[in-house]
Amino acid sequence: MSETSDPHQHSPRWQNWAGDQLCTPVTVQRPGSIEELSAAIARAGDSGQRVRAVGAGHSFSEIACSEGAQVRLDRLSRVLDVDTSSGLVRAQAGITIGDLSRRLDAHGLAMENLGDIDVQSIAGAISTATHGTGARLRNISAQVVELTLVLADGSTLVCSPERDQEIFGAARVGLGALGVIAEVTLHCVPAFTLRGLDAPAPLAQTLERFEELALGNDHFEFFVFPHADVALTRTNNRTDEPPKPRSRLAAYTNDVLLTNHAFGLLCRAGRRLPGRIPQINRLVTRLAGRSERVDRSAAIFASPRLVRFTEMEYALPREHTPQAVRRVLEAIEQRGFAVPFPIEVRTVAPDDAFLSTAAGRDSGYIAVHMFEGMQWQPYFRAVEAIMDELGGRPHWGKRHFQTADTLRARYPDWERFQAVRARLDPRGRFANEWTDRVLGPVAEGSALGSVVEGSAGG
């Protein structure tokens, strides 16, 4: 087994954040510049290795696993340019969302929408169509105005709608299958403050009012624990009030001691005594009170996640969301699944990236989780069967059992993506077992040189 001589080299053995996806690549590269990234990919190509890039390792699927060359992007973590007048910000691919948000705030800028976890790399979040919640707000990849790919021969390709609309439509949610993202330019907005309200509400009423709540708030989501009849709702709306950050003690008490450590203890109790999970879930629901916060957007959006789990998430036509929640809860009851984690429900506006889970439709998202060390496959398969019937599209960074044959009809632009893939990576260099399953083999395409002529740069 060979490795790079880079002094910053990590062990070739790799695992994701959840600890349940593992691989041992033949070679591992940790480039610190776009030139080093290009050279690493070219070397892998010369040796006939397939290449996968990995950011923060926060995907639950096998998307980043590599049996050949693995490129770790954590050293590509700089903000390269900030234009406060236009809101355009160029950053390297490996910067985490949390770090990027802090640097944006120093310039009076913010990303218009984020999820509730901010440890992902920006490239990983873009590549998998990671999202927050907001019926009028699109996912993170839709905030991209330009990105730079390193292709299989080590050359670079700047992707934008002005240069090539087809490539840009594919590259924004590229699944790492077109090349390795080196840099990304995002359209950011002036920094803003949110008033966040967490409050319990009757589940039946929340489902009946789902459309009203989704459209009546900037950001709306809710959680429901199986065996409970109460939804834990979360609304975040812009406000002109000044931020009122919590004290460090208050933040630690709520976000670490209660939300993580206490919840982790209850999950471990449920894992040991699965028959008690219904009572535990109802207890957790009763203990959840009403709370309000007024703070900068990034501080409100994100919270720490210390309890390990695995996850499946599906995007549905938004109008099907309440029905899907009811059916998942019914399946848990009827089939006796031991589920100590809540179901999470969010919304996202349509976009036009070819393989975005929200492509072309208003979407509701339903996420199901399972605590580490507990059986997840029967539960997730049952949930997936429900989502299949309702037109669901799986989150690319989370667990699912789909194949290219089952996915093709769910994406109107599937063949357009595959055509771009054949143009940019005709030899299937940026592939692994996961892409073989969910995308299939690369179709025969034209040679790389004729594809990017006049488009490569930087």
Biggest sheet character: 8 strands, antiparallel
Percent range for β-strand residues:
15-25%
User: What would CATH call the architecture of the domain at 193-399?
Assistant: 3-Layer(aba) Sandwich
The end-to-end distance, rounded to whole angstroms, is: 33 Å
Shape descriptor reads: globular
Count of DSSP-assigned helices: 15
User: Which strand order do you get reading across the main beta sheet?
Assistant: 16-13-15-14-18-19-17-20
Please name the fourth-level CATH homologous superfamily of the domain at 193-399: FAD-linked oxidases, C-terminal domain
**In the CATH scheme, what's the topology name of the domain at 193-399?**
Vanillyl-alcohol Oxidase, Chain A, domain 3
Number of E strands:
20
Indicate the mean pLDDT. Answer: 93
Proportion of helical residues: 25-40%
Coarse structural class: alpha+beta
The CATH class label of the domain at 193-399 is: Alpha Beta
| Poorly predicted residue ranges | 1-8, 446-458
Give me the Rg, rounded.
Answer: 22 Å
